[in-house]
Design a protein that fits this description.
It is built from 3 helices and 5 strands, in the order E-E-H-E-H-H-E-E. The chain is of the alpha+beta class and 105 residues long.
């Protein structure tokens, strides 16, 4: 089971372990990670689960729908921006560091 390290805007870290196949947003919400709003429940239609992903080459790139939604994030879009509802966890992502932006809405 991969462990993900969420870096929160205040500098604190939250380590979360979730089963492979779980989407990053669900792992965060299920474990009470602050800053992941996820208003649409994981349908890639609100951009309130925006994160910056270290090792983005392993997490893959956004599909067309996600890429379009990333243009509407409250925080600055960066090359490592992803919607956490679109990142599926796997053993290859064990130890992934995810930075939560200061604002989502």
């Amino acid at each position: 089971m991969p462990t993900v390290i969420f870096q929160l805007p205040d500098g604190t870290e939250r380590k979360v372990t979730a089963a492979s196949g779980t989407v990053l947003m669900q792992a965060a919400v299920s474990n009470g990670v602050q800053g992941i709003v996820a208003e649409c429940g994981g349908n890639a239609s609100c951009a309130t689960c925006h994160v910056y992903v270290d090792r983005s080459e392993l997490a893959g790139g956004p599909n067309d729908v996600e890429d379009e939604m990333l243009d509407f994030t409250a925080a600055e879009r960066r090359p490592t921006s992803r919607l956490s509802c679109q990142v599926e966890l796997s053993d290859a992502l064990d130890g992934l560091v995810v930075h939560v932006p200061e604002e989502q809405v």
